[in-house]
Design a protein that fits this description.
Distance between the termini of chain B: 42 Å
Largest sheet of chain A: 2 strands, antiparallel
Structural class of chain A: mainly alpha
Oligomer: heterodimer
Shape of chain B: globular
Number of domains of chain A: 1
Structural class of chain B: mainly alpha
Shape of chain A: globular
Order of helices and strands of chain A: HHEEHHHHHHHHHHHHHHHHH
Radius of gyration of chain A: 21 Å
Number of helices of chain A: 19
Number of strands of chain A: 2
Strand content of chain B: under 5%
Number of helices of chain B: 20
Helix content of chain A: over 70%
């Protein structure tokens, strides 16, 4: 079943590859939407059959037995929400792409491949399998940015992206090898390693391992100071690419922390939890402050990702500070961090798609070039306002639930850090209000650059169909958090039990 | 022709007490034979119907035979004989094209090879003098009694010769010249075939003949590995010729391969890692050269717009180049995985860290080539080329288009070997099990 979920987009991609390229956007993007919907149905089936504890829908085959590598898939409460998030975001992006894109065939094939890889990463229960999907996502995203970005800066941004994240992934591979060789027998199996806990003793070797794995994941997350690849990659990527990059690919880093770094290296995680907390808080503040200084809408959204991923690390780090807090508080922090991953994926993807729609009409991301959009394009203005409020963590949206849980959980363990991090929410609120004040009210002002299409229409049906569901989901998760928390919390408790060993 | 070539290269089983028939030898033979087959297919366009076609095929096969002999040699004298057999036909092959650059390349290759040969012979003599035997078992026993210093000098001299065959630092300087000077098909032969035998021979020599407590060869090999990958990567950055770039890339690949040699006998995965990586490297490298042979372009810029003209070939190129980096799910990734695992297991964590950094550095130049293949050729004049340049490149493109189609052998070899490289990655488990399961 999981194999089908993972490889279904790839199968469709193979089938589509024989369709001639002149078939047009409608055929390719249409097939992509259908693929996403089928994948969602399959995920719903898996969700319904999720066991109360442990991994569901497990599949296991020997792959490279002599090197301890197996094909091992399975889902639990941590991976299932992200798997579903991936399917939702890819489907929304597919709907958005129906509007039209240059060279649709290559574009859709690349995204279908990315879709398969993303699903694979969240269900992989073998370190090498995880690494494989992790690495492949970089390759496909490189081609998306280089091929559908704009000109030479896009190629440079793509190269920066590739080099940075590839370095991260190789660090990850090195860390995996170090971790596995510490065990009594070579096996890359995640549940088996969690049980064995090969580096329980801590020490220099364990510290080195957690450092290398941590750097690998931090690059992808991205945490300060490893975030410098992110703004150019986001700015140069096409809107769909930015949405997937921020919504899914960044989560691969944070998911790696909960799936690998915490349960497999508990002793070292406890030892270095404070580092995670500090890095998280620095990312929160740095991301928010730099975002505040941006005049480019897309760069601003990109930097808020650094800020939001910082909250995740704060929560996960706090969960490692075992001594300072109760078990319940730590479970709250871990669950909040996972909730934040899902919430940020939905909201940021919506923001990036909105920014893409704006760029299509005005050919620029410069916020100063726009004004009075509330009267000229009310649907855009309304959705942008909703997304902005959701992103800054207004109660009623998923972001609030996530951040509230993280702060409540982390307060006991790391009070000073948490208080500092809360100010990040204030800065985010300021920057979103500022951007809305610049663009939405006042006299109508649209960019007048050469090549700008004269009419400045409001959002079309296809754009609405892509963006509205994301914001509706963010609202539903904000009003009825139990839907997701019931799934996340048992798994979060399991992770914490593993960390506390 | 290919079938007969395969049959002709298959040597009779020979065991004279100096030639070992074990997993390593069998694997070497298998890799060499399949690679030779691919190489002869690759050369189809270049040599088919050529006046000296027979000569070409015979030279390739003799070189392959030498490589197989190297892989199984368990005696210093046989090692040297195999060294000569693997070298001499390839000197002739380098000069086969009889163009100006090819003659120069052949001469450089020959002179470097002659020097390496003499050094090797001196080393063999010294080792024989110290140990009083030429069989590896005898050497291993005798060397502990002899003077350690002389043994070290002898070993270094022999290693110099093997490093020349493998194209490793410090005997690598001929590689880019030969790769650039000869037709791509010939370059593919010279940068692939002898490496296979040379590395297995190095592994066998160090593992079975030289106890590490007499000469600290693990450190020596580790330093050679580090130097090979680092220097070759640095040199590859500035290249504009695709063949020189691929030449340097083969030198850096030897660096990774030597990591497995450096932990010979100390990590259970070392030998399977070496053999698997060799197989992965051989196919991926042949695929990369085959694409260049198919496009018949010698510069990186010449590959611009390849994705537009021949998407399948471009994909094969990406698979080959990213394969050389070690991106999943190509075979080299699993090669690197097992090599790194073996090296960490053998206590060479610093070398693995260096290899990781080198892998990232190598991305710079591989991605430059991939980016070129996926950029449209400069037909619009708004780039910084002047009008003359633009028309020039259009002519270029037209010429190239006819080129790709007229080289079906090279094209199909490129597609085939790239596919094998992927397949080998997916089937890594089976292959690794065949080449030796660690205890």
């Amino acid at each position: 079943m999981l194999s089908l979920i993972v490889f279904w987009p790839a199968l469709v991609a193979v089938a589509l590859s024989v369709v001639p390229a002149r078939a047009g956007t409608r055929v390719f993007a249409g097939a992509w939407v259908a693929t996403g919907l089928v994948q969602l149905v399959l995920i719903a089936v898996v969700w319904a059959g999720l066991p109360a504890a442990g991994y569901g829908s497990v599949e296991r085959l020997a792959w490279i037995p002599s090197a301890g590598v197996s094909y091992h898939l399975g889902v639990d409460g941590l991976s299932l929400p992200l798997l579903a998030l991936a399917a939702v975001l890819f489907t929304a992006t597919a709907v958005y792409t129906l509007r039209g894109i240059a060279r649709p065939k290559g574009f859709v094939l690349l995204f279908l491949a990315l879709q398969a890889v993303s699903a694979g990463l969240f269900v992989a229960l073998d370190l090498i399998l995880f690494f494989l999907f992790f690495d492949l996502s970089i390759v496909f995203m490189y081609f998306v940015i280089a091929g559908w970005g704009t000109g030479a800066p896009a190629r440079r941004a793509a190269l920066t992206f590739f080099l940075y994240t590839f370095l991260g992934s190789l660090a990850l591979l090195l860390g995996f090898i170090l971790l596995v060789l510490a065990g009594p027998r070579v096996s890359f199996d995640i549940p088996a390693l969690a049980e064995q806990n090969p580096l329980a003793g801590g020490g220099v070797y364990a510290g080195l391992t957690v450092l290398v794995i941590g750097v690998g994941l931090a690059v992808k997350t991205p945490l300060f100071p490893f975030h410098t690849w992110l703004p150019p990659a986001h700015t140069e990527a096409p809107a769909a690419g930015s949405a997937i990059l921020a919504g899914i690919l960044l989560k691969m880093g944070t998911y790696g922390f909960v799936r690998i770094a915490m349960p497999l290296l508990p002793a070292s995680w406890r030892q270095f939890a404070l580092v995670a907390v500090v890095l998280g808080v620095v990312s929160v503040l740095w991301g928010a402050l730099v975002a505040l200084a941006q005049t480019d809408l897309k760069r601003m959204i990109a930097y808020t990702s650094v800020n939001h991923m910082g909250y995740v690390l704060l929560g996960l780090g706090a969960a490692g500070l075992v001594a300072g807090s109760s078990e319940q508080a730590r479970a709250l922090a871990t669950a909040g961090a996972t909730y934040q991953m899902v919430s940020h994926g939905l909201i940021t993807a919506a923001l990036f798609l909105l920014a893409g729609s704006l760029h299509d009409r005005g050919r620029t991301y410069d916020m100063a070039a726009y004004g009075g959009l509330a009267t000229r394009t009310p649907r855009f203005a309304g959705l942008f306002a909703v997304a902005a409020f959701a992103s800054l963590g207004l109660p009623g949206f998923s972001g609030f639930i996530a951040e509230f849980q993280i702060f409540a959980g982390a307060l006991g363990a790391a009070p000073v850090a948490t208080v500092i991090a809360v100010t990040g929410v204030l800065i985010t609120a300021a920057l979103f209000l500022l951007s809305m004040a610049r663009m939405l009210p006042g006299a109508t002002r649209t960019p007048d650059a050469p090549g700008t299409p004269r009419p400045f229409p409001d959002l079309g049906v296809r754009e609405l169909l892509a963006i509205v569901p994301l914001l509706v989901l963010a609202t539903v998760l904000g009003l009825l958090p139990r839907v997701l928390l019931d799934v996340i919390e048992p798994a979060a408790r399991t992770v914490n039990d593993l960390v506390a060993r | 022709m290919a079938a007969t070539a395969l049959a002709a290269t298959r040597p009779p089983e020979m065991v004279f007490g100096t030639y070992v028939l074990d997993t390593a030898t069998h694997t070497t033979r298998a890799i060499v034979l399949v690679t030779t087959l691919a190489l002869i297919a690759l050369c189809g366009d270049t040599v088919a119907g050529h006046r000296r076609e027979t000569e070409f095929v015979v030279l390739v096969q003799l070189g392959a035979l030498g490589s197989m002999l190297l892989g199984g040699a368990a005696d210093l004298i046989l090692l040297f004989a195999a060294f000569l057999l693997a070298s001499v036909p390839l000197y002739a092959l380098a000069g086969w094209a009889k163009q100006g650059t090819a003659t120069e390349a052949a001469l450089k290759y020959y002179l470097a090879g002659a020097l390496a040969g003499v050094t090797t012979l001196a080393g063999v003599t010294l080792l024989f003098g110290v140990a009083g035997a030429t069989g590896y078992a005898g050497v291993a026993e005798g060397i502990t009694r002899g003077p350690g210093g002389a043994a070290a000098v002898g070993l270094v001299a022999v290693l110099a010769g093997l490093a020349f065959k493998a194209g490793a630092v410090p005997a690598h300087f001929w590689v880019p010249d030969v790769a650039d000077g000869t037709p791509p098909a010939v370059a593919a032969v010279i940068t692939t075939l002898p490496k296979i035998g040379a590395l297995v021979a190095t592994y066998r020599l160090l593992d079975s003949a030289i106890p590490a407590d007499v000469v600290d060869w693990p450190l020596l090999v580790a330093i050679l590995a580090a130097a090979s990958m680092t220097l070759a990567n640095l040199a590859a950055f500035a290249q504009t010729s695709i063949l020189r770039l691929l030449g340097y890339s083969t030198v850096s690949q030897v660096g990774y391969l030597l990591m497995a040699v450096a932990v010979a006998g100390r990590a259970p995965l070392a030998q399977p890692a070496l053999l698997f990586y060799l197989a992965a490297y051989a196919f991926t490298n042949v695929a990369a050269f085959a694409v260049v042979a198919a496009t018949a372009q010698r510069s990186i810029d010449g590959h611009r717009g390849l994705a537009r003209r021949d998407p399948l070939l471009a994909i094969a190129f990406v698979v080959a180049l990213l394969g050389l980096v070690g991106t999943p799910p190509t075979a080299v990734l699993f090669g690197k995985l097992v090599v790194f695992t073996a090296a960490v297991d053998g206590g060479l964590v610093w070398l693995v860290v260096l290899a990781v950094l080198n892998t990232v550095a190598s991305l710079f130049y591989y991605l430059r080539v991939i980016a070129a293949a996926f950029t449209a050729p400069d037909t619009d004049t708004d780039t910084d080329t002047d009008t003359d340049g633009a028309t020039g490149s259009v002519v270029h493109v037209v010429h190239e288009r006819s080129g790709t189609r007229s080289r079906p052998w090279a094209r199909w070899t490129a597609l085939g070997t790239a596919a094998v490289s992927l397949l080998l990655g997916v089937c890594a488990g089976v292959v690794l099990a065949v080449v030796g399961t660690p205890p």
